[in-house]
Specification:
The chain is α/β, with parallel strands linked by helices and 401 residues long. It has helices at 64-76, 111-120, 129-140, 160-163, 169-175, 184-198, 251-260, 264-273, 276-281, 286-294, 298-322, 332-337, 339-346, 358-362, 387-399; strands at 2-8, 13-19, 24-32, 39-45, 54-59, 91-96, 107-108, 146-150, 207-212, 216-222, 225-229, 327-331, 369-370, 379-382. It is 38% helix and 19% strand. α1 (64-76) packs across α3 (129-140) and α11 (298-322) crosses α13 (339-346). It binds adenosine monophosphate. The site of adenosine monophosphate has 12 residues, from α10 and α12.
Length: 401
């Protein structure tokens, strides 16, 4: 069974075609700068089968429909094609960022699902293109079953006392303002993997999962289900991120507005795009931050310490929420690759039963692995995330009934 996973962003379209017989990627691509003067499409094919693994082309891509047609052309066309015809795609899985309170499981796309997703758009207007992608795909692949997998799904088990904000109750009732959480597909995927690695049933596994990429979030997982997470109504909350601030005193917004004469839209942009690691030291790439701090850059050192400190803060908080845990799990770009961040975030947690093994931590090996000391009561794991594979698996499970 071949499954096409589609992730339609505001000016980009990411896609991955997977062969579910052996969970391998047939081809993956990204179409960027949709609607801009010069768009870019890059597609990589499985190097085991196609020797030319990467092809890039620059051309004007008018809108998401043009992008989707381009994707189809590249997947089946003579030049880059990896499949004979569209019939070789058995199902499509769509990543949808905001499922609101409506969706706690993947859904087969029909008119009702589309209308429910539309109703949730005010909660995440920046992600309206998710729906555009689904509607175009329904036109282009009218006979292919399509499934939506929501970033918020895994967090729907968070209890009310944890997802409510202490603001006037009518704001929840009228505007659905509450914590939703994001990166759910990643937290769910690494939870399953971690449970398997630990040799425990998922339903009996307690974890703190730490997704550190450009966006960063953590989840407290109790008996395989999400009990709390750091992101909130939007993906701006919680940890310090590449360019997003994470948790700040909400009164700062009014303070900035008054003293810098900035409008709320500009402040929102600043907190999303000019803050986090970038806001403190001018880059959001952790590799550059390490290079800079090795050269004595005090701001880079500060950004690194702030970043790790906030991870540690939530490890403590979630340990208190969960009582006992089997493992702390690091994943995503920084979580999987950055031994410095992992070491600093876990430093001083030994009295709580979390002891990292410095040698294992710095060893660069692929796949899921344990990096805690042999006598650490709580394991520390690295689990590479794979959101596309998880979406494809959920899609396959639903389509196959
Ligand atoms: P992601 O969003 O999961 O793709 O993660 C992207 C982030 O991972 C980048 O901003 C980098 O800062 C970070 N990253 C990727 N590779 C490394 C590495 N080898 N060491 C440290 N950070 C890395």
């Amino acid at each position: 069974m071949n499954i096409l996973v589609i992730n339609c962003g505001s000016s980009s379209l990411k896609y991955q075609l997977l062969n579910m017989k052996d969970d391998t990627v047939i081809a993956s691509g990204v179409i960027e700068r949709i609607g801009e003067e010069l768009g870019i499409i890059t597609q990589r094919s499985n190097p085991a089968k196609w020797p030319d693994t990467k092809s890039t082309e620059k051309l004007f891509i008018r809108n998401h429909e043009a992008a989707m047609r381009l994707m189809v052309e590249k997947l089946v066309g003579e030049e880059w094609g990896v499949i004979e015809s569209l019939k070789d795609i058995d199902a499509i899985g769509h990543r949808v960022v905001q499922g609101g309170e409506t969706f706690s499981t993947p859904e087969l796309v029909d008119e009702n699902v589309i209308e429910e997703i539309r109703a949730n758009i005010p909660l995440a207007p920046l992600h309206a293109p998710n729906l555009t992608g689904i509607e175009i795909a329904m036109e282009l692949f009218p006979h292919t079953p399509q499934v939506t997998v929501f970033d918020t799904e895994f967090h729907q088990t968070i209890p009310k006392k944890a997802f409510m904000y202490p603001i006037p109750l009518n704001l929840y009732k009228e505007l659905k303002i509450r914590k939703y959480g994001f990166h759910g597909t990643s937290h769910k995927y690494v939870t399953k993997r971690a449970a398997t690695h630990l040799g425990k049933p998922m339903g009996k596994t307690n974890l703190i999962t730490i997704h550190l990429g450009n966006g960063c979030s953590m989840a407290a997982v109790k008996n395989g289900q999400c009990a709390d997470t750091t992101m909130g109504l939007t993906p701006l909350a919680g940890l310090m991120m590449g360019t997003r601030c994470g948790d700040v005193d909400p009164a700062i917004l009014a303070f900035i507005a008054k003293h810098k004469k900035m409008g709320i839209e500009d402040i929102d942009t600043m907190l999303n795009k000019k803050s986090g690691l970038y806001g403190i030291c001018g880059t959001n790439d952790m590799r550059d931050i390490h290079a800079a701090r090795e050269n004595g850059d005090a701001n880079a050192q500060l950004a690194f310490e702030m970043f790790a400190y906030r991870v540690k803060l939530f490890i403590g908080a979630y340990l208190a929420v969960l009582g006992t845990i089997d493992a702390v799990v690091f994943t995503a770009g920084i979580g999987e690759n950055d031994a410095h961040v992992r070491a600093l975030a876990c430093k001083g947690l030994e009295p709580l039963g979390i002891t990292i093994d410095q040698e294992k931590n710095t060893l660069r090996e692929p796949g899921t692995r344990t990096i805690s000391a042999d006598d650490s009561p709580i394991s520390i794991l690295i689990v590479p995330t794979n959101e596309e594979l998880e979406i494809a698996k959920e899609t396959m499970a639903l389509v196959n009934g």
